[in-house]
Amino acid sequence: MIAETVCSAVSAAGLGIAVVTAYRRRFLSAARIAAYALVPVGLVMTGVVGWLADTAFSPTAWAGFGVLAAAWLLFAGTRAVERRRAGAASEQGGASSGTGRARPGTTAPASPAPALGQGKGKRPASSGDDFSDIEAILKKHGI
Fold it and tell me: Helix (H, G, I), strand (E, B), or coil: what is residue 141?
């Protein structure tokens, strides 16, 4: 009986903290705190704290499993939102810090000279030890 009272008090305090956190517009943290706060009540309602033999047939126990499922959904939901925000922040930070990532919708600057192999002549037929490409490059640079 005392364990159930303590768990209920802990859950009530946790839900109060979650309300205050939500009032401060920190909704992800508030949802996570609410999830933690619901766990003791869920454990009491499932009978884990009291460990009764008739837990499987108790409607209160199944309601407790529902509360635990709600807590798990809150955990999973806040993690998904957190990962999505972290991914968006890393994309914005990478594009603005000059790490070489291009922003979506932008193109690379035009090259002043044509790429190798796009010249006037044909590409020589290649064989196993053919160094004609290298020779052509060296001749182009006067080496």
Answer: coil
Residue 25 exposed, middle or buried by CB count within 10 Å (0-12, 13-18, 19+): exposed
pTM: 0.42
Q: Give me 79's structure tokens.
A: 């993690």
What are 100's two structure tokens? 């070489």
Tokens at 32, concatenated: 């996570």
Instruction: Compute and round to an integer the Cα radius of gyration of the chain.
Output: 32
- How far apart CA 143 and CA 139 sit, in angstroms, is 6
Question: What would the two tokens of residue 108 be?
Answer: 């690379």
The list of the chain residues with pLDDT below 50 reads 53, 98
Q: Which residues contact 52 (CB under 8 A, 6 or more apart)?
A: 58
* Residue matched to tokens 């009272």: 5
Q: State how far the Cα of 51 lies from the Cα of 49, in Å rounded to an integer.
A: 6
